[in-house]
Write a structure and sequence with these properties.
The structure holds 2 protein chains of 2 kinds. By secondary structure, chain A is mostly helical. By secondary structure, chain B is α/β, with parallel strands linked by helices. Chain B is built from 11 helices and 10 strands. In chain B, a hairpin with a 2-residue loop joins strand 9 and strand 10. The termini of chain B are far apart. The chains are: A mainly alpha, B alpha/beta. Chains A and B meet through helix 1, helix 6 and helix 12 of A and helix 4, helix 5 and helix 6 of B.
């Protein structure tokens, strides 16, 4: 007969174990859907290659002889854009789809009646999203760089990593906001999250400098955390900018945005949960 | 002995130890529609409001004692599942109070969640995951150690007639009856002191239904778990429950032991001794459970 001995440990330990439930569950789901994940990975690689080849062909497209160093810069500019955007998209999608996925499987009520805090729930989702996005992006990077001769001799990888971590925090907060939408509208909520992504893609300088945007659109670039993240990673990889150099203008704004958006996203999520429970929308299938 | 009889978490036992009242519902009210629309987000408040309000739970009051199997018998749409969701903290009541072992479901939501678990009519799982993976997910949410949860899952499923090797099969490969047994295992895995069973046998084949009912009865005999069971199966309610409340249009129209209800109605309709729960239900609601009906204005005498 099984006996139960009460688990000891701090409240933080309990919450971390609760968060691990989401990491383990999502990892199991990825394993079960491995064929679809493979398809998605191939698509991501092909997509990254297609965009990066535009840089390689810059001389032929413009009909002007371009120095190899400039081609290298152009290729790296696009490569960083496509990889960072891929990373951010995976983080954002995994967090924002978490509600819709559970609603589709029918498990949402069981997750929401479990004795864990919503912070733990969303932290678990976010932790898995970051781990999965890092792995996914690393594979895409490994394959894509094999196709190009890229000069990264000046790159500061440490600074790049710090910008990536700081930028992830702000995107997790944004993902929490997006996860609210399926709670408010079971039918159309998830589609609406695509609008958020499209807006960030447009204004953040993913594939072009924000200076080419119309003047009236440029202020939006400055409030998008992806702008700072892309700019910081490009500076670290292309110009070898150090952490100290990137701290005031890139890393600090990203951290502050994360500090603001994560609590705000959590608060908004809890309000939306309350609304869904008051109106009976938690159970409806969209 | 039911598998893992003594393994109710000491913590949940301690939390629930101070009272013999497992569940106390006072004037619980839940409406859907116009009233609920009042708490729409500000950007939707001007939107057209639904033309009708449905009172799903209409000022219900009841008390369930520790260790009791309490049945809530009602037709489809009578408010059974809404009441279960209110108790489960999945809906916010519009009025009244609900307490689980003295803890308010709204103000002490997280404590209540530690004390309860629920098995619903739909066996809701990640269908691609195996039974064990689904159960482990539930176990971790309730902070159960992995090895313990694994062993207990095997014990519970074995006692429900499911072999250990099926634990590793994706849920989508299992029959509805098997999935429901896994759902019951999930409900018991966390050692709830109040188990909410929302039509747990609906749609099951007779054999699976019998297995589940037998298990519920064994729990009453051997396990320190209070059971709140909703059903529209008359025989099931009669066979399993210590007391039965009959719900109609969101209201409790009668509450007594199965025999007490049959005696009262038998005396009224002149069918003493041979009264069935179906007679009771028909007399009190004016409806037959064979029909999937709309609301009725029938007044009980």
């Amino acid at each position: 007969m099984t006996t139960f001995s009460e688990r000891r440990g701090s409240a933080l330990g309990r919450e971390l174990r609760g968060a691990y439930a989401f990491i383990e569950r999502n990892a199991n789901l990825i394993k079960r859907y491995w064929a679809w994940e493979l398809v998605w990975l191939v698509y991501s690689i092909v997509n990254a290659l297609s965009i990066t080849f535009i840089g390689q062909a810059s001389g032929e497209i413009t009909g002007v002889a371009i120095a190899p160093e400039q081609v290298n810069t152009f290729v790296l500019f696009l490569l960083v854009g496509t990889l960072v955007w891929h990373y951010l998209s995976v983080v954002f999608d995994l967090i924002s789809e978490s509600i819709q996925w559970e609603r589709w499987e029918g498990t949402i009520e069981y997750t929401f009646m479990a004795p864990i805090s919503r912070l733990t729930h969303l932290f678990g989702q976010a932790a898995f999203a970051v781990l999965f996005a890092v792995l996914h992006t690393a594979i895409v990077l490994a394959v894509v760089t094999a196709f190009f001769r890229i000069d990264l001799t000046r790159a500061d990888f440490g600074a790049m990593l710090v910008v990536l971590i700081a930028g992830s925090a702000s995107f997790i907060g944004l993902g929490m906001f997006a996860a609210i939408l399926p709670l408010l509208s079971p039918e159309k909520g998830l589609q609406t999250t695509n609008i958020i992504k499209a807006m960030v893609l447009l204004v953040s300088g993913v594939y072009y400098p924000i200076s080419v945007l119309p003047e009236w659109l440029q202020p939006l670039a400055y409030i998008s955390s992806a702008t700072y993240m892309l700019d910081g990673i490009r500076a670290a990889l292309l110009d070898g900018a150090s952490i100290e150099a990137l701290w005031p203008g890139r890393i600090l704004p990203l951290l502050l945005t994360g500090l603001l958006t994560i609590p705000a996203g959590l608060l908004a999520f809890m309000r939306a949960e309350r609304y869904a429970k008051a109106t009976g929308r938690l159970k409806r299938n969209g | 002995m039911v598998a893992g009889q003594t393994i109710s978490s000491p913590e949940t036992q301690r939390i629930a130890a101070h009272t013999e009242v497992a569940l106390e519902v006072r004037d619980a009210l839940k409406r859907f529609g116009r009233e609920a629309a009042q708490i729409q987000p500000f950007w939707r408040r001007g939107a057209r409001k639904p033309s009708e309000t449905t009172v799903a739970v209409d000022r219900i009051s009841l008390t369930v004692r520790r260790g009791e199997i309490f049945g809530l018998l009602g037709a489809n749409g009578s408010g059974k599942s809404t009441l279960i969701r209110l108790i489960s903290t999945l809906l916010v009541p519009d009025g009244g109070t609900i307490r689980v072992f003295g803890y308010d479901v709204q103000r002490e939501e997280r404590t209540v969640r530690r004390l309860i678990n629920r098995v619903s009519v739909e066996a809701s799982f990640f269908k691609k995951l195996s039974a064990l993976e689904n159960l482990m997910y539930a176990a971790r949410l309730y902070d159960l150690p992995g090895a313990y949860a694994r062993q207990r899952s095997v014990e519970i499923l074995r006692s429900l007639g499911l072999s250990e090797k099926r634990l590793h099969e994706p849920l989508e490969h299992m029959s509805r009856g098997m999935q429901q047994k896994v759902a019951i295992a999930r409900g018991l895995l966390t050692s709830p002191v109040l188990l909410l069973l929302d039509e747990p046998t609906t749609g099951l084949d007779p054999r699976s239904k019998h297995d589940v009912q037998r298990f519920i009865l064994r729990m009453r005999e051997e396990h320190d778990t209070t059971v709140f069971l909703t059903t529209h199966d008359m025989d099931e309610a009669d066979r399993l429950c210590d007391r039965i409340a009959i719900i109609d249009n969101g209201r409790i129209v009668a509450l007594d032991t199965p025999q007490g209800l049959k005696d009262a109605i038998g005396a009224r309709i002149g069918k003493n001794g041979a009264t069935t729960m179906e007679d009771v239900f028909l007399a009190l609601t004016g409806k037959s459970l064979d029909d999937d009906f709309e609301s009725s204005d029938f007044e009980i005498g």
